[in-house]
Structures are given as structure tokens and as C-alpha cells.
Amino acid sequence: MSGAILYHFPFDPASRIARLALAEARIEYTETLVRPWEPDCPLGQMNPSGMPPVLRLDDGRGRSLTLCELGPILGWIEDEQKGPLLLPRDPTERAEARRLTAWFERRFSEDVNAVLLHERLEKPLLRLGPPEARALRDGRAALKEHLLILEGLAGSRDRLAGRNLSQADLVAAAHLSVLDYFGEITWANWPSLKDWYVKMKSRPSFRSLLADRFQGLAPAAWYADLDF
Amino acid sequence: MSGAILYHFPFDPASRIARLALAEARIEYTETLVRPWEPDCPLGQMNPSGMPPVLRLDDGRGRSLTLCELGPILGWIEDEQKGPLLLPRDPTERAEARRLTAWFERRFSEDVNAVLLHERLEKPLLRLGPPEARALRDGRAALKEHLLILEGLAGSRDRLAGRNLSQADLVAAAHLSVLDYFGEITWANWPSLKDWYVKMKSRPSFRSLLADRFQGLAPAAWYADLDF
């Protein structure tokens, strides 16, 4: 494929996962920022769900491939590799990387993002008024339960799925990075997870995420700091 | 691996997908039926989410591998194959099979199953009282929208993701088969989808699903009929 365009929204966790995975795989791409809640968003024509991320590949000879959202994008990236990149070779770690990916995309998204990111991110974007105290409290309580589980994993393994870097690390770091921008993670409470996140944040693939800025809101003081 | 045990609940769509995929791959397994809502369910010790399906593999020499839910199970089955089985080789069909899998596991589950299966299946199991008319109406309206999309796919392709059988067909057929048991699908309204479903239902992998019976409730008259 000679050309790749990533259609993404910088504060969408799945879009961040795609950016990290493409950067880890050293696949060059151009980017088009999209706002999926706006009626003229080009994703309406490309993805039946209308959601980012979408990766459009073009071979320069009139053939193209449209990859809609994470499953197709991560799967295609791994298919293109000569050796394991997103999924470790070891069967246990491989299963764990897949389990944790689904855990974030389903559980974490429903328990935490649908509540906390709705209040902090979607409401200002869609002008839905100020956040509600009760929803913030519920979302933060759910986040705490997930962080407790992740602290356990980070304390007992080098990487979230085992000894090797995998898509589980990219998925988790992307999700946490969005919440971190909004100052929702008190890292001092989660020392093992913090050590893991420092390592993730220091990777070259993470740089562009740390440069993202949300309309009219500065990130938490430590957001882009590699030594926080 | 010398032994495989599938822990599943027969009316859980994901459990049905695992059974179909194992049968299509001709992987022999023994089964343990579980009731994940009961406090002593063995899945509590095997899967952090507590949910089925879980596939436990044992190599007979003390090493085992626990595959929790669909991503790890389908991924492992495909890893074990010599050629493509669940994911077609053609890049477009491969992406489409992955997209549709995520569509069902996320969208269809949230829009339809969380409403309609909650009323028809979870409420009797958990003794939560009779179904609510409003929820049934909402769930059926959401199901209709999804069936409209699937009718379009089935009318323009041999299989849901393209020319070849893929995991998209297994995923879709498993989800629809549960709703069909409860008589929720009026097949006459969806002629192309019906043709596709007749083919799916006729596969040997489907036989055990058609023999499932739900406590105290007979299936729709046509449920196990291959020529309906």
C-alpha cells in the first residue's frame, strides 16, 4: 500500500490506540481530524457506525482498503508484520493481550468512559451543559476499581499482558492518557501502574499524543511530563 | 493440546459463537455448562469478568492455557489453523469479518441484547418479574434496524463479509439464533437474510445449538426446522 490516511479524533481512546499502533509498527500515514458528532463528518460515508478511527489504504493503482475501527486496524497492522508486534508469540501472553484489549473496549468503555468522559469531554464538545456531580462521582468510583486491577497487573508483570510489550499496553495507555489529560488519575495512589505508564509515555510513539490540546482546556500539569 | 473444556451458557450469544467456531475448526472438546449469575459459578476463578465462554486447554503434561471470552478464543482457533478459517485471506473480506464481529459484540449487544434478551432471557433466569412492554418495544425496534442492515448485506454478498464463510457469519448466526428461539425474528420480512440463515442453520456445526432448550419455554415452532 502506497498511501495511508488515518481519520481520527485526538481525544477518542480508540483513535489514540490506532496512532500508537501505527507508530510502533513504523507505518507512515497522513491524518485527517474528524468530529464524528457533526453532520458532515466524512466518516458517515466510510464507516457504517460513523465512528473513528478509520484507516484508509491506497495502493496507488486504484485499489483501496478501508479499515473501520480497532479490530480491522490492529488486525491489519499485525498481519503486515514479519514477526509478532501487537500480539506476543507466547500463547498465554497472546491470549492475555487479546483479553485485555476486549476488557478495555467493552468494560472500561462502558464503566468509565461512558460516564466520566461523557461528563468531561462530550458535554463541552456537544454543549450539553456543565458536568453533573453524581455522574462524576460514579465515573470516578468505577475508574478506581479498574485502576486497582491494573495496579495488580502492573505490579506482577513487566508489561500488562506479561513480559513483552503488546497491544494491551497500547490500549490501556491510550485510554488512561485521555483521562490523565483531564487530571482524573492520581498517580501517587498507583505506584506500579505509574512506573508502567512512565515507560509507555517515554516511547516515541507516545509523543504526538502528549502534544494534543483540547479546546479551551489546558491538560493536567503532569500530562506531558515524562518525569512526573 | 490434548484436552479442551468449554465453559459456556447455552443461551449466551458469545458462548454459541465459541461452539460454532470450535465445531467449524473440528476441535474436539468437552463442555461444562455454567450459570454465571450464581455465586459459586466456576468462572469466577477463571475469568476476571466472570463471564462465559471460557476455553480451558490442557497439554496433558501439566501446562494449561485459559482463553477468556471471544477475542482470545477465536484468535487462538485461527492461530491453530494451517489456512484461513475464521478470517478470509482477501484483505477486504478479512477487514469486513473483523468489523462485523466488533459490530455484533458492541453495537448489537448494546442496542438489542441488553434490552430484548434482558427482558426475555435474564428476567426469567434471575426471577426479576415479567417483561416490560416498553422495553420489549424498544428492543424490537432496535432489532429491526439491525435486521435491515443485515438484509442489505445478505442480499449483496454470498456470506456476510463477502464471498467466503468467516467468523462474521458465525457471530451473526449465533446472535440471531438466540433471538430466534424466543420467536423474535419474523423471517418472512427478511428474505435474503433468511436464505443466508437457512444455509448457516444447515451446517453440522449448528446442530447442537438447535437442540438447546430453555427452562420451561419451548422454542419458536420453526427454531430447529431446517426448511422453515
What does this structure look like?
Two copies of one chain form a homodimer. Chain A is of the alpha+beta class and 228 residues long. Chain A folds into two domains: 3-80, 3-Layer(aba) Sandwich (Glutaredoxin), CATH 3.40.30; 91-210, Glutathione S-transferase Yfyf (Class Pi), Chain A, domain 2, CATH 1.20.1050. Chain A has helices at residues 13-24, 43-46, 70-80, 91-126, 133-156, 167-181, 191-201, 207-210, and strands spanning 3-8, 30-33, 54-58, 64-68. In chain A, strands 2-1-3-4 form a four-stranded mixed β-sheet. In chain A, a hairpin with a 5-residue loop joins strand 3 and strand 4 (64-68). The longest helix of chain A has 36 residues, at 91-126. The first copy, chain A, is globular and about 55 Å long. The termini of chain A are far apart. The model of chain A has no long low-confidence stretch (mean pLDDT 96). Chain A binds chain B through residues 48-49, 65-72, 75-76, 79, 87, 91-92, 94-96, 98-99, 101-103, 105-107, 149, and chain B through 48-49, 65-72, 75-76, 79, 87, 91-92, 94-96, 98-99, 101-103, 105-107, 149.
